[in-house]
Amino acid sequence: RIFEQICGFGEYGFPESHSASFAVLAYCSAWLKYYYPAEFYTALLNSQPMGFYSPSQLVQDARRHGVEVLPICVNHSYYQHHLIQRPNGRLGVQLGFRLVKGFNEE
């Protein structure tokens, strides 16, 4: 009897539509991370707080993947993180003031 209940649950307990949409999201994220890494990390950092990865983990991962991440600078940073053109022609990430506790966009 218990086995029959488990089998019955298995037919609706695993939402295939959810897994399919998650697979598409994971594939798109991997594609963006590979082909547009600076843009990918800038967007993720600007989407914080997400509750999964901290900004410091994202910055470390960006650096491991060859993205130059510049620290907050009073002369070059905005509130949001943004892309910057580096002398080598590649894009980097300029960290923004949103990481400073107590700062807001106003």
From TrEMBL:
GO terms for biological process: DNA replication. Transmembrane segments: none annotated. One of its GO terms (molecular function) is 3'-5' exonuclease activity. It comes from the Bacteria. PANTHER family: DNA POLYMERASE III SUBUNIT ALPHA, ERROR-PRONE DNA POLYMERASE. This is Error-prone DNA polymerase. It comes from Vibrio parahaemolyticus.
